[in-house]
Amino acid sequence: MRTAAASIAATTWIMMAILLLMGTPSNAEEEEGIIEKTVVKVTNGLKVQLTAHCKSKDDDLGEKVLTTDGFFSWKFYPNVLPTTLYFCSFEWDGSGGNKSFNIYVESRDDERCTHCQWTIYEKGPCLYDGGTKVYDICYPFDS
């Protein structure tokens, strides 16, 4: 009898541990504030049509054709270690070919924005600054 009772108790503890481990990640993602999705928005600030193609090493977001002031956006969970990277190529009439830019670099952007709003101009992309309320954090294209 004792052996059967001990076996049932051990099995119960193992099952409880498995259920606890299985439930933890999904609960953490659903609780507000623990894990927050990052949103990246890319807007065409040019006076001509813009073709944008953004991707990470895991996700290809496809080619998007944006009219003036047109935009597209996507959401994702950044990596636990600050290694998330999304990069884009941009092309428009008169651009002289593809221009590229690392649109989201977790080590650069994680503390700065969870809703990263970029506008693409001829000289390069500019990020919306929540403090000044304008797109004044500007960078040149990488190439």
Automatic annotation (TrEMBL):
Keywords: Secreted, Self-incompatibility, Signal
Coiled coil: none
Gene Ontology cellular component terms for the protein in this record: extracellular region
Subcellular location: Secreted
Signal sequence segment: 1-28
Main location per the UniProt record: secreted
Biological-process GO terms, alphabetical: rejection of self pollen
PANTHER family: PTHR31232, S-PROTEIN HOMOLOG 29-RELATED
Family in the record: Belongs to the plant self-incompatibility (S1) protein family.
Protein name, entry field: S-protein homolog
Organism name: Linum trigynum
Organism taxonomic ancestry: Eukaryota, Viridiplantae, Streptophyta, Embryophyta, Tracheophyta
